[in-house]
Amino acid sequence: MKIGLTGGGTGGHFYPIIAVAEALRKQANDRKLVDLELYYFAPQPYDESALFENKITYVRVGAGKLRPYLSLENITDAFKTVAGVVTALRELYHIYPDVIFSKGGYVAFPVMLAARLLRIPVIMHESDSVPGKTNAWTASFARRIAVSFPDAAHFFDAQKVAITGNPIRAAVAVAATKDAGTQLFNLEPGLPVVLVLGGSQGAQIINETILDALPELVKKYHIIHQVGKAHLVVTQKTIDVILANNPNRARYIFVDNFTVLKLRAAAGAADIVVTRAGSTLFEIATWGVPSLVVPITKSNGDHQRKNAYGYARTGAAVVIEENNLTAHILLSEINRLTAAPDTRASMSAAARAFSHTNAADLIATELITVGLEHEQ
Questions:
Q1: What pTM was estimated for this model as a whole?
Q2: What CATH number is given for 171-354 in this structure?
């Protein structure tokens, strides 16, 4: 059986694909499907080691973005998309997968269209409360549609939709113990830990606010901060100034991106997470850590704000709007939650209740079912 995988551009799209690939490998082994072949179609491999570890063959298929504003790049990217469709048709015809799993994003559009033309069945997944453009355009010919948020189900054909949650890699689905996190990051025992996740690209406004509040934060907390590769140098220069001669400087730990080991350790150590409102929310939910969520103000369909408030309504998080995000307000909210263990315990329970730990398995089962039907 051959299964195609597409979508990507960010970790929020790519790593759920890896989670589904892990589940496919496990189920294929359990069901004695010895001939399973997985292919990833995208302009870039994103994480070659993850593809290699899961025995996924990378196939380059170009794609262009469609920006919601006037730009000459829309013209050049339109040609990239057309070229991508031609490439996808050629590659899909040659490989001819039995089924394709799409996570959406502009990366997936040429593959989805080519699959439609070649009559290859497609199962797609929508991570957000509001579907992205590619998923909205291609939903009509998807065989099945999985969604993370219940609100997203209303945008699709009810007969096709299943609320599965977001696929999460097995390696990060369970946080390390508090002691393991404390040891790996060499933390002071008993000091509260704030984990700041800006995503693989970093989040400039969150980074700047944390740095503004840092001299006060390190008086009472350890801060473990994912700043994003693009912000690594400026962060180093900034802390060299604002924490110069500060006796608590070692309480601030920053990385560009986390390895799986360090992410699990940071999650285990964390008392509170500060985060954006993308698919990372589902990892935080499985960890059961209370969170302060700062949604992007301008996102497709305002999906980040809807994600954030949908999650917050469960009691698992507090939302801070970008236009309200200041060092004073962030520090005040962190102080309030760390001083209220009962509130944190309630938020933690709500987070775990929100999580769907079997999303990857549910999707993998459907992919194999449809793939076997298509093989016959």
A1: 0.89
A2: 3.40.50.2000
